[in-house]
Amino acid sequence: MSDNKEALRIEILKYLEKHSRVDLSELAALMGAEETEVANEMAEMEKEKIICGYHTLIDWDKTGVEMVTALIEVRVTPQRDRGFDRLAERIYNYPEVYAVYLISGSYDLLVTLEGKSLKEVSRFVSEKLSPIEGVLNTATHFILKKYKDHGTVMIPKKEPERMLVMP
Fold it and tell me: Which domain holds residue 39?
């Protein structure tokens, strides 16, 4: 792959990561490239699974929908010849599971889970996650407030609270 093509791909990916709804012609103009060239690169990167999907970031707190997000640290026993992959696959196949990461530190996996209530998430952990053979223990952390998510600040900036003083 040429250096110019690689540089264009990286520019496209960085921009799309923050602005997935950008118009194709606008993106091409920003990249200084032809619209067809950008479209072809995006299609090729989708085919190669470099671009894995497009997501919309929603502030669910503003919708009135009750939702709880939990981060669950999971310590497991790696399996011979498969390491963490088989256990991770078993966990990510649950529809409640939003994401699974292999992490460093005292735990092995970080599972992100969304549910309707604390009780629902707790039930998932105790009835589905903890009984899996190879899971040694878990630690559940609930997200109480999001300040920044996927690079986007979720809290609007407050206007200064100083009063205007007239002379």
Answer: 3-47
